[in-house]
Design a protein that fits this description.
TIM Barrel; two-stranded antiparallel sheet; 16% strand; 5 helices; alpha/beta
Length: 128
Amino acid sequence: MTEYRKLPRGTEMIGTLGLGMGGIQSAPPEEIEAVVSQAIENGINFFDLCAGGASVYEPFGRAIRGKREKVYFQLHFGAVYNAAGEYGWSRDLSEIRRTFAWEMKARPQTIGVPSQWDKNTKNDGRQK
């Protein structure tokens, strides 16, 4: 049985056991989706999408479809993905903005990010 704890600020109940997505990006998309679905069915509600590569986003999104309100995930500020979808780090603010804009614009339907981002953001990821 998974134990859940309330965050210090807010009402979210986060499981003490989460699932990191680092290393799973080389698995077939169907396997990634199945792993995430099985984790949710077994009470895991926190996922670290960082270091998993860009290829984890779409299968993750399919796995949480219809369950988004039960799931929490984190993204790293400063994490970037190259054209091949490989994970990396950058201190270049323009590169960080491009990646963040991609995460927020290209994947809202996939990972359930509110569409409000589109209304308040320029094409290069900067706030209007």
